[in-house]
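RECORD CONTENTS
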Amino acid sequence: MNNVGVTAVSCSPSVPGLPQDRSRESERLLRIALERALERIADRELDAIRAAELRGERPTFGDVLEHYRATRFLYSAKLEQLGPRISAIEATWNRLIVADGAVFKIFRRHLIEDDRLVTGTSICAFEYAPSCWLVQHLVSARRHELTGTLAVCLGMASWVGRTSADAALRFTYRDSNPGVARLFGSFDRFLPDICLETRRCAYALLDPGHADPGVELPSGVTIAEVDRRLAPAVVAFYQRLGHRVGVRALHLDDPHAPELAERYRRHGLERRRRVLAALRGDRVVGAAVCHESSPGINFSFFENAIELLEVEPELQEPAGRAILKHLVSSALRGRQLPSEVPVALLCDLARAPLARAAELLPEAPKEYIVLTMRLADGGQEAVRRALLHHYRELFTEVAAADGAGS
């Protein structure tokens, strides 16, 4: 992990405005000035975000939808996909907005356009698992703006960090988006291994027909719903397969997360979790984590997802394929929401070929990066350093471009 301070700032003498003969001492002072300016900008942006929060500002669902449409975050194909579900989505979001600060959080940074106050940048998050917040919908009205995204990202990380001593952030994004990939791509340079996990996952929406596995389980294998007694064995299974920070952030030691479910119920919302295990005797040979929620929280349906679909790597065809099919089948049969509510599958790429063989994934599925960051053990300050590093690079590029055009 890099230590980021004044000496880590890259500011070449070739940047316009810095004559080639300027002394190294002048360059050093300029780097210090840039570092301090960024720190002040970050602090002032955080103050502005906190001020809006303390004033109790809350948008309506109409405000949110207008912002998403105006920025083309909700493009025509996505709007068409959501169209039949828009009433359910609106009902969910109306309750989420009332629950702001409980199981949901939204931050907005405003701009003035034509003497009107409009949303410039926004971000929101919902409590995905106990103390683990899925951050989503980072939306900006102005492309290439410098401080709005910094403000809302810092604001969200700061707020989540205050909710729990072992809070975590979770981001799910496609790295085909270059801006998002650049923003999140440098976090591994700043966060220690105990605070960061990055997974690349195949993604698909499951067909309700997958509730019928269509094959028999291998001899001696059973599917069980995990309770507290079995939870340590399942956590150990995931850890053997390399899932460490992400599994820790999900708090699978309490498989059903009843306190989280109760927090959602207080606001007229649903949130349930089940963990399933494939057992051969008392040995865990497969597992899946199943989330169920009021529909429409996330527009890619991650609130209703089956993830961490795993099988012991030594179990190949046909045993491994059958176990994956039965885990998904059991997850779908145990759902309490109507069958028309979409269910997303997130499957690590290492298991994707087997999932395709089990007809759970298409031949060329979408891929998402799942990024989990724990804020304890130095994670909070490391997130701040990573964000400031990103914006330091942007400011330097803007200065270079402005100088080149002058």
Observations:
- The radius of gyration is 23 Å.
- The chain has two domains: 6-195+373-405, 203-370.
- The first helix runs from residue 24 to 54.
